[in-house]
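=== How it folds ===
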Amino acid sequence: MTAAAQRLFIGGEWVEPAGGHYEVVNPADESVVGLAPEASPEQVREAARAAREAFAAWSRTRPQERAAILDRAADIVQREFEPWAALARAETGAPTGIARGMQVAVGAARFRRYAAGALEPVERGLPPQVTEAGPMGAASVLGALEVRQPVGVVSCITSYNNPWANPAGKVAPALAMGNTVVVKPAPQDPLSVFKMAEALAEAGAPPGVVNVVGGRSVAVGEAAVDSPDVDMVSFTGSTGVGRRIAEVCGRSMKRQLMELGGKGAAIVFDDADLDAAVRGIGTTFSFYSGQICTAPTRVLVHRSVHDALLAKLAGYASYLKVGDPAEHGTVVGPVISAAHRDRVEAYVELGRKEGARVVVGGERPVVGPAGKGFYVAPTLLADCTNDMRVVREEIFGPVVVVVPFDTEEEAVALADDSDYGLLSYVWSGDVARAFRVARQLRAGGVGVNTIGRNMEAPFGGFKRSGVGRDVGSYALHAYSEIQSIVWTT
């Protein structure tokens, strides 16, 4: 698949990038998918100015109009589903089922969800307050109204692991609330995000309401954060980059929404359904090839069932087909790039040096006769302790580490002994214990006997895993400011 050279989308126009183009590489076979644009910092600032100019009119549109545009955008995504799913598979390396069901389909669903979200109430009456006469004036009854207002211009900086669900999860609620956006997609797989811009433009989003820029240069990302026309930054990515963005935002008091790193703890008690636990933990091997911050990568298992769980996990990992994402039956595709493959492999080697035992995986798989692509075998590390770097640091690949525990208290202590706190998990046949433990964990979310997520529940992290909450109606709150209107009666 080779696409035409992609242009930037600024102020409702398709604009040639000042920095030319670069190749987007298919992680599965290293072929060229298309040519992505390299914006200049000034073009990013131009996009922010266009969003600023569009904000006043867009923020005053009727909610029904914003809802209709988002609904039409979802219709267009569904109309173009097949070619856009093929593009997503090509530039991310995701297997066909993931590209279709968890990328493009989720993107469309999020536009549909926030079309309805645009119609949710933004005003709430507060109980009246009786005040006595005093220095502030005569006795009166004061009414009050809480009103949620759009923040303004939102810079949406997105991750490479899902170029549909992640941007749509930012852009759709931001637009629903009356904000305008500048989207800066990940440089590894930006082409799908420009298709999203096409859908919104065709759906009737006015010029400047949606702008998409891009590029590999750090200066492009910096301009998307420090532009004086940007009021809020919504970022998904590493904790290190998030910290730098927060420092810049702090200088001008920009609002922030940060979904950062994770090292999810999966606590498996002695009475757990081990097969169910393995199916959940095994998604680290298969789902996005472990390139997902919510993965249960750090398994804490009761010593009495340690060997049994390890054997089941090893069997599960060995069963998974690693291969070309386009081929039927492929479960584990490549990671996003050669550099990231090398990083994951370096962590596995580090684990060996730290004393971990490689139970399965640990060698580079060869896929196809040419042996091209950025593949990492599902890898299981045992004999781990909580002070090892492979246990403490986010690997972001199909690697699971296993640490034994003896008591409930020790399990909680091990789980919370982490810089991260995004999602953790508890497997136990005793639901009361599972919920008791869940409430003690310092994590933004806890799955009890499941890795499933309720997509109306708030999503975000404790500690270095992020700032703020989104998903469902919480996203509408995240992209709004609260205003109080008070009057006397």
Q: What stands out?
A: DSSP finds 16 helices and 22 strands in the chain.
